[in-house]
Structure formats: structure tokens, C-alpha cells
Amino acid sequence: MQPLQWNGKSLLVLDQTLLPEQEVWDDCDTYELVAEAIEKMKVRGAPAIGATAAYGIAIGANAPDALALDKGPYLTYLDEVCERLAKTRPTAVNLFWAIKRMRGLIETNGDLSVQELAELITREANLIAEEDVRLNKAIGQNGLAFIPENARILTHCNTGSLATFDYGTALGVIRAAHEKGRVQQVFADETRPYLQGARLTAFELHRDNIPVSVVTDSMAGYLMQQGMVDLVIVGADRIAANGDTANKIGTYSLAVLAKHHGVPFYVAAPMSTLDYEMETGAEIEIEQRSADEVIFIGGKRMVPEGVPALHPAFDVTPHDLITAIITDQGNVEQPNTENMRKLK
Ligand code: MRU
Questions:
Q1: Strand, coil or helix: 187
Q2: Same-domain status, 188 and 113
């Protein structure tokens, strides 16, 4: 199940805030609508956000008003489109990676006409989306090295088809392992407050007949203590040069629990999630989202009026808690600056 459909003119975005109850597709035909879809988390997950931003630039580049501009103003306008999309969410580096790739393309093809540039940008957006699926399948194959027979796997958030253009990263590894008959059980952390695990991971895996049970985030320690988890695998929003990994809030707690119980802890991500410009995870900006997303569940107030709530949307897991990082280019065991450099 893909979260995005490009129809040649606009981007259809599956509104993930409504899943699993409703499958509603939003037709985003302006770059502003694309930016809002990212901000409101109708589309989410690092690689999906990157592909969405690329299509947002393509939609902006092909807007009739924009195509009527002279080259100079057109380039200034494209810059504004990129700026707008870059302001949507701060943590997932794939967003900035996709925008940087588009800016590079525009710069190196400065001699093209406005029309030709718009076509080139559209082709690049399609390429980013297509590549994503190929890379996810490579991650899946590389991850098999760490999945034993009859594996009982705990995962967090949603890292599947819905978080990418298709197939998934950490869920891609689970999918590849399932294809080999190695998956006995997946435990999907509910993932408060947005419930990506309960609503999205369970939805995807159930649909694909991969055995999944949902657990609340606070049950992970119990499961490990009972010997019910063979490994943990999660995705990433940004991995620093030393292997420190930003991912959905709650990932760090899982890694600490896994270390305590001797359970291996894996991170799976495409190379576009690696940010070698950040030496450590301390430099990664953590998105702070609205407290209302914690206070209300399904529109119902869960916290007394007048009581504030916190909502950091991500946390950083230090590299020494990570057994291996799995990428499309290979795996890094015992990630640290030196070992991560080998991937680069
Ligand atoms: O806030 P979200 O839902 O965009 O956060 C998603 C995650 O944290 C995922 O684990 C990460 O982006 C990897 S998705 C392949």
C-alpha cells in the first residue's frame, strides 16, 4: 500500500491521520497543500516526507503562473518553494536531502528554459520515489543477516510502506524476513501519541498476513523480561556521523531496555537518512509538536483542563546502544564515527 500517488499534475496523499478507519486521499495540487500535508502529518515517515517534498517542488515548478515567469523570477520563485517545504518539519533529514538534491539539479541546469526545467524537476521527483522502493528492498536483504528463524521482533512507530514510497525500512527487513518464513511474531508498539504503531504498522502487517500484536509502549520492558523478544528493529529520521540516531519518541527507552535485557537493537534506514554534517546526535533538532496531540485522543480530552503536556516528537538513541545500523549500502556493526565512515 503506497501512501502517495503522482497523477502527472498533482500528488494524491493518503491521509494517515484517518487510518485505519477511513482511507481518504487528498488531492494536493499546490505546493502549499503539499507543505500542509507534511505539517499535519497526513503523510509522515522520513523517506515519505522526502519524496513528498520532491513532488511539492515539482508541483510548484509546473504551476501555470510560474511557467509564465521569466527565468530570473522563476528561479527566485523555486527558491521560495524550497524554503516553504523546508519549514514543514525539522527532524527527518530526508526532507532536506530531497530539497538539496532538487536545488542542485536546478543549479547545474541553469541554461535550460523554464519549461525544460519544470520537466526535469518532475522527472527527478519520480526518480526519488522509484529509487526509494529499490533502496528499501536492499535494506530488507541486508537486514536478513540479523534475523534468526522463528524471530519474535519488537518494532516502534511505523517504518513500512506508509512511511516510505513502498516496502519500508525496518518493516522492509521484517517483510524480507517474512518472505523467508523467519517471522514468528511482530510486536508493534502502540507509539503514543500519534499511534503510528497501533494504527499504521498493525494495519499494514495485518493486511499482508504478517503476524502482529499491538502492545502499549509501556509493555516493552515486560515482554523483554519474559524472554518474548529476540530483537528490536526501528527506523530513523536522522543518523549523525557517529551513529547516534534520532527516531520516534520512545525509541531511546526501548534501546535502554534492550541493552539491559541483552536483546539486540537494530536501526534500518536508507543512506539519505545519514547526516555526516552532524558529528553527534546532540546537534539534531528535535521537533516539538502541539501538546494537544498528547492531551486529546480521538478528539476526547485525556488530561484535566489547565494541565500542560510535553510533546517532543523524537528522541536520540546514543550509538553505543545500537547493535547495528542496516542501510541499502551495507550494515555497520558497533556503530561509531570510525565504523560509520566506512559506509560513506
Ligand atoms: O513523526 P513521524 O511519524 O514522521 O515519525 C516517523 C518515524 O519516526 C519513523 O520511525 C522514521 O521516520 C523512519 S520511517 C521509515
A1: strand
A2: no
Give the domain extent around 9: 4-137
Query: Between the CA of residue 66 and those of 10, 96, 115, 138, what are the distances in Å?
Result: 15, 23, 10, 38
pLDDT at 56: 98
Q: Are 322 and 144 in contact (CB under 8 A)?
A: no
Q: Is the predicted pLDDT of residue 1 greater than 90, yes or no?
A: no
Q: Which of 87, 108, 137 is the last residue of a domain?
A: 137
Q: Are residues 9 and 121 in the same domain?
A: yes
pLDDT tier for residue 153 given thresholds of 50, 70 and 90: very high
Q: What is the pTM of this model?
A: 0.97
Give the distance (Å) from ligand 1 centre to CA of residue 328.
Answer: 17
Query: Do 198 and 116 share a structural domain?
Result: no
Q: Is the pLDDT of residue 298 over 90?
A: no
Assign residue 22 the CATH number of its domain: 1.20.120.420
Ligand 1 pocket check for 43: Cβ under 6 Å: no
CA of 318 to the centre of ligand 1 (A): 17
Please indicate whether residue 44, judged by its CB atom, sits closer than 6 Å to ligand 1. yes
Residues forming the active site = 237
Specify whether 29 is located in the same domain as 117.
yes
Ligand 1 pocket, 151 CB below 6 A? no
pLDDT tens digits for range 270-280: 999 999 999 99
Residue 247 Cα: closest atom of ligand 1: 8
Which tens digits make up the pLDDT trace of 94-146?
A: 999 999 999 999 999 989 999 999 999 999 999 999 999 999 999 999 999 99
In the reported structure, the alpha carbon of residue 257 is separated from the centroid of ligand 1 by a whole-number distance in angstroms of 20
Atom of ligand 1 nearest to the CA of 196: 3
The ipTM assigned to this model is 0.99
Domain CATH for 188: 3.40.50.10470
Ligand 1 lined by 101 (C-beta under 6 Å): no
128, 146: one domain: no
DSSP secondary structure string, 81-136? HHHHHHTS-SS-HHHHHHHHHHHHHHHHTTTS-HHHHHHHHHHHHHHHHHHHHHHH
Q: Are residues 74 and 147 in the same domain?
A: no
